[in-house]
Design goal:
Nucleotidyltransferase, domain 5; two-stranded parallel sheet; nucleic acid binding; alpha/beta; 225 residues; single chain; 7 helices; five-stranded mixed β-sheet; RNaseH_sf
């Protein structure tokens, strides 16, 4: 069955700041995701360890992480996903188990040349890519396979909530139903900031205690002299 090409609406170029490919000219989004692997694994440990009494993340025995990233085309009020990439991590070993990058066929926009270069494909190859529904189904299947026993749950991780929000908007526009794991994704940016704030508060507390002890010691020395 022939693939119908989208209407020729050009997506905005880099001067508009919209090709949302957060990778260097020499690296694909998948490679960028892989490069962030260690950070994702570390952040997952933070998410597991963070106490929830102060509104933080509830501790969960996650054993597998799906660090996920998206690439978009944008023009006016149109946003389309053109790539979904994920890296599967084992939390215990901090090892990458699988790295996947799947193209998504746009329905309304044409990708600029620089975006095609970063994706490493031609316009024709992008037109022949899987639909958003098909790619999401593959991701869902991978997540379910890693969580099928219910004992070793997998969790989705994203760095920026904005990208996840745009992805959900695209899915809604295509009438693609998303499973709950997309709503329960761990936002690494928040976890890391929360962790840093906690560490900063602990450090300030230790410094205050140290200064108080020094002041107390100084007073004792002066009174003893």
């Amino acid at each position: 069955m022939a693939t119908e090409e989208p209407h020729a609406v050009p997506a905005a170029g880099p001067q508009d700041g919209v090709p949302d490919l957060q990778s260097s000219d020499s690296a694909s989004t998948a490679e960028a995701v892989a490069a962030a692997a260690a950070a994702a694994a570390a952040a997952a440990h933070l998410a597991v360890a963070t106490n929830s009494s102060d509104g933080g993340y509830q501790a969960q025995p996650f054993t597998t992480l799906f660090f996920i990233d998206f690439s978009f085309l944008r023009a006016g009020n149109i946003t389309e996903v053109v790539e979904i990439a994920w890296v599967v991590f084992d939390v215990a070993t901090r090892q990458s188990l699988e790295e996947v990058s799947l193209l998504v066929r746009p329905e309304q926009l044409l990708a600029p040349a620089e975006v095609l270069t970063k994706l490493g494909v031609t316009q024709e190859q992008l037109f022949a890519a899987s639909t958003l529904s098909e790619v999401i189904q593959k991701l869902d299947t991978a997540i379910f396979q890693r969580s099928q026993d219910g004992v070793n749950p997998a969790v989705l991780c994203v760095y920026e909530p904005e990208k996840l929000k745009d992805f959900r908007t695209c899915a809604a526009a295509r009438q693609v139903t998303l499973y709950p794991h997309f709503a329960q994704a761990v936002v690494l940016k928040r976890v890391i900031q929360q962790f840093l704030n906690s560490k900063f508060s602990q450090r300030k507390g230790r410094l205050s205690t140290c200064k108080a002890n020094q002041l107390s010691g100084g007073l004792r020395l002066r009174s003893g002299g």
